[in-house]
Amino acid sequence: MPGVAVCPNSKRWSEFPFSPEHEHSLKRFLLPREKYKRYGYRTEKFSEEELLHKHEAYCKRCDAFALKPDDSVAYKQQLQCRIHPGKKLQQIWSCCRSTTIEYPGQPSGCRMFSRHDWTTNSDLPQKFWDLHHTPQFKPSSRSKQVRKAVSLDCEMATNRFDQPELIKLTLVDFFTKEVLIDAIVKPLVKIKNMITHIHGITYRDIISASNASTAILGRDAAREKIFEFVGPETMVFVHGGTNDFICLRWLHPAIVDTQEIESRVKRIGDDELDDWLDDEGTGLEAMCRLITGIQIRSGNTKYGNGVHDSLEDAMACRELGIWYADNLKGEVGMEVLGPPEADPPERSTSPPPLDEENKQFWDCKVCNLKIPKAAEQLHRKENSHIATLIMLIQQKGG
Fold first, then answer.
1. Which parts of this chain are annotated as the region Disordered (predicted)?
2. Do the Cβ atoms of 276 and 290 come closer than 8 Å?
3. Which of 359, 210, 294 is nearest to 14 (CA)?
4. Is residue 217, in this structure, part of any structural domain at all?
């Protein structure tokens, strides 16, 4: 795994050195704990009832587990009951002198049984789905002081239970742009689909990194690497990071989700940008391009055109955080930006009177034009309107 270094193409990304003012401006966007569940983040470990829904049966003999065990031939071929009857001494099995790696959920072994000994009483799902709170920071040779804020991005494959499985981890210091971690993660579970078309990472990449001793071995080791830099008070910036935390089996009390910010912040006077993001979506590429003016996944990464690179994505997430800190002033509430609105008037049972002058027109704040209401959607798609909108967004982001 590479050591701490400054992000490549560092000049492409904004400077945001640490200061108490900068730190306070970022803390405004911390996701309130009471809203974690609403946005898919967890605050506590899975309950026994939740674990029962994760996997329905477990093999007492080999600790394999499955969602829907049955007696079909296809299922038996996918998940055979195999064990090593011997003992493992210095990574070598005494029964067959093998060094075969065991994968949770589908162990390998030199002795095979025709069928599993299914039961629902096993602590394996607890081990597999055990979530870990951020521990208190302990200084180490790699980091003597805890980082105030970091940007995180993970690349994932799909394991044999159709769950996200970590295969690459990137962690960047928010204030210094130092690359703290940028490494392939070798999964310790069987992979069903690498989804290489998303991130460009192949089985061969993982094997090569493992042979070169640059890969992190498993999600637990990856999480421990993060804890070398992060403490409970460290702000962790992500963009739609629910799966990132789940695949790391990590519970953290200080999360800033730049995708979530857009859903709860209402920019006064920026209705057009809100509408535009509604059309484009709030994915990282669209938000970074429309809000900051920076194009990512454009073919300049080592993985090719349109493919995710976790380092670039972590820096893009950081860039969104900086834009919000610089451009959104005051305290950011859960629904609106700015002073609280007055209590709404009591509702009337009769409909409000229509304004005869304006009821058939729509005010385009981008072009400063009054457009017939019937032509609103056509005007939004006109090239002149789109070009003006993008120019205004980039000016605001600068």
1. 335-357
2. yes
3. 294
4. yes
* pLDDT of 312 over the 70 cut: yes
Q: Are residues 161 and 215 in the same domain?
A: yes
| C-alpha–C-alpha distance, residues 93 and 87, integer Å | 6
- Give the ranges where 104-233 is alpha helix by DSSP (H): 124-128, 196-199, 203-211, 218-226
From residue 34, give the alpha-carbon distance in Å to each of 25, 175, 344. 21, 27, 25
- Non-local CB neighbours of 23 within 8 Å, separated by 6+ positions: 148, 149
Tokens of 25: 């401006």
Using the structure block, give the residue that is written with the tokens 């095979």. 112
Residue 115 belongs to domain spanning: 48-128
- Of 128, 162, 191, the position where a domain reaches its end is 128
| Residues with Cβ within 8 Å of residue 117, at least 6 apart in sequence | 59, 60, 61, 81
CA angle 152, 153, 159 (to 5 degrees): 130
Residue 222: name the closest of 155, 144, 146 by CA: 155
User: Residues of 108-139 as b/e, b for ≥16 C-beta within 10 angstroms?
Assistant: bbeeeeeebebeeebebbeebbeeeebeebee
Q: Are 146 and 229 in contact (CB under 8 A)?
A: yes
- Distance separating the N- and C-terminal Cα atoms of the chain: 35
Taking phi over 0 as left and psi of -120 to 50 as alpha, with beta for the rest, 37 belongs to alpha
pLDDT tens column, 29-88: 999 999 999 889 999 998 877 776 666 667 778 777 665 545 544 444 456 788 888 888
- Is 191 contained in some domain? yes
DSSP 289: I
- Strands 81-83 and 111-113 come out as antiparallel
Q: Name the strand (E) or helix (H) holding 132.
A: strand 132-133
- Helix extents (H) in 337-382: 376-380
Maximum alpha-carbon separation in the chain: 89
